Amino acid sequence: MPRKASAPANAHASSSSGSKSPTHTRVTGTPTPNLQRGQACYSCRQRKLRCDGKKPVCTPCLEGEREDDCEYLGGSERPQTEILQDSIRRVEMKISQLEARRGSMSPPGTPSSSGGSSRSESPTMARSREPSLGATIELIDAFLPSAPELGFFLDPTRFRHSALLDLPANHAARPAPALMAAVYLWGLRLSQSPSKAHKEPAFLARACELAAQGLAGIHPLRVVHTLQAEILLAQYFFAAERFLEGKYHAAAATAIAVGLVNGRLESMEESERRAAWYTTVVLDQTWAVVLEEERGLGAQGWVMDDSPLGLLGQSAILWQRSSSLVRRWGVDLRREEAQALSVTLDELVALTDDLQARLSPRTPFIARSIAYAAEMQLALPLNDWERRLGAARNILALVADYSLESPADGRAPFVNPILGPIWLSAVQVVVVSCATDADGLLVKLLRRAVLVIGTFSGTCVLLTHHISWMQELVAGI
Known about the structure:
Elements: H1 42-47, H2 59-63, H3 80-100, H4 123-126, H5 133-143, H6 156-163, H7 177-191, H8 200-213, H9 222-239, H10 243-261, H11 270-290, H12 297-301, H13 308-329, H14 335-358, H15 365-382, H16 385-400, H17 419-433, H18 441-453, H19 461-475
Helix pairs in contact: 3-17, 5-7, 7-8, 7-9, 9-10, 9-11, 10-11, 11-13, 13-14, 13-15, 14-15, 15-16, 15-17, 16-17, 16-18, 17-18, 17-19, 18-19
Region (Disordered): 1-39, 98-129
GO cellular component, one term: nucleus
Subcellular location: Nucleus
């Protein structure tokens, strides 16, 4: 598709705009008329070029491929470009202030993002017996409603049935101990019970210890169950903003998944193998974006698959590849490297447009959100503000229409923690555009979306921090 040059390059990282350098073209042939002060277009005034005053686009802007920047203003009127750029600077300054205050925002008793390793917990507590049957039921039932948000790819009905069998913890008919410990950990966290919060360090230590030993056991499904346990642990640490530990468990999950998908480990149903692979790809690719790292699963994980998990996997891969391209776009490159990046950009735009065409209202909320996040990223090197704003607006519209289904006991609903960074990026873009929102529709959408987003506050440290930042940004408009 043709690339559209547009006003602001970015609402958070304007150095990665990917726009062409200004072309100082002086028109020859036809004499340039002498215009009165203030009659030249805004673009020529900024570049100190002699404007010929032609409308709708003057000759210097036409030859310099700056048609979208050619604006004629009268009197003290400010161009939309300047208004948006001022708004960008204000939003970036506000984000910097919020990030500086980040260290003081963790509620008492929450895991520290820079805290010590969970493996330092008491070995006696880590080896403690399993919960009672009643406690086991309570923990599993607290976990399962939110399991899809955490990357639980096993069949939940079969899992619950086997987990409640009256058999020893390491029996082949029950889930492997590492998986049970990870589920207990999340069940305790999701139960949001203040009276049981003190048990979480022991549960965490046990889950990490058993996951480390998972592949060395004798359970017939030790590989796939250890993979599932590592995914749950990675999500636990990422949600707590303990990123180093999250990366460790995500890397362990990736290594196991590569063996599974290549058929070298354990016999499993093809549907379950595919679910395990897609879930690992999504974990690997999405958190690579947040942590600004390069990951290698994207090339292996891409398959044209219109199943819900397939669309989620493709969305995650496109988001990671788009973010990776944006990080490299603003760096000084040799001509050959720049040309290669341009080709990659065209490919990603085509893949993103194709993916958007295959999404539907039945596509999972998380898949559509990530797909729009990828589109927001691609709009940066395209220098297409309207495309970026449209993707951000679509993300917030999804949130505004989100069907809140709180658990029956009144606990706060839980969503995938990766949505926090996505929502924050969308809010930043829309807040910038509110400066030129004549009819107030953007402000209305923004406030409705952030109101819904606020219901997820308190479910995990990461979301709580991001939601607090969003609320402060919206309070300032």
